[in-house]
Amino acid sequence: MTDEGVRYLAAALAALPLFGVALALGRVFGDWLSSIGRNPGAAEKMQGVGLLAFALTEAVGLLAVIVAFLILFAA
To answer: CA torsion, points 8, 11, 12, 18, in degrees to nearest 10?
Structure first.
């Protein structure tokens, strides 16, 4: 296997956490909307928690993309 093939394989492996991020975001927003549906009065309190969970989950995805790009395009 050539060096280029190894780089492609490593970048693909580095991008695997994106599947977990997609599943986690679906779970975060599904549970968030479900909890707001059960208790609409607490929607303002839950908004900060929901957005924080979104931001932290998305940060993991961005880190995975950055690592994959570094593997592909760094010398």
So the answer is: -160
